[in-house]
Amino acid sequence: MDNHTGEVKIGEGGMSLRRAFRIAGAQTVLASQWKVSDKATRQLMTEFVGRWGSGELHAKAWREAQLSLRHSKEFASLYFWAAFTLTGQWN
Q1: Potential cystine with 16: which of 7, 12, 29, 80 (Cβ 3.0-4.6 Å)?
Q2: Domain for residue 4, yes or no?
């Protein structure tokens, strides 16, 4: 969307949602690029928030959470752990 006229620009999709959060003041945005199972997402986010809450930097906590899912039996496919992008402040 254009900040002044509200026009939708071709190809923005999820980018405009991330941009809206950043404009609203979010320092970091974690967004999905496609629909992922709730169970896989819950496991990934629980791992991420637990690591981040324990003091790991965003980027390291995110990488470790993805690796944890990647090495699991049920959600090893990149379909489950690669759908998300972390943008903004990585520290």
Answers
A1: 12
A2: no
Cα–Cα distances (Å) from 73 to 2, 56, 68, 76, in that order, read 44, 25, 10, 6
Number of CB atoms found within 10 A of residue 48's CB = 23
Number of structural domains the chain divides into: 1
Give the structural domain span for 73.
13-88
Q: Which amino acid is at 65?
A: A
Which H or E run contains 80?
A: helix 78-81
Ramachandran category for residue 84: left, alpha or beta (phi over 0 → left; psi -120 to 50 → alpha) = beta
Q: What is the value of pTM for the model shown?
A: 0.72
Rounded (10°) angle between helices 58-70 and 38-53: 140
Of 85, 74, 8, 11, residue with least CA distance to 40: 74
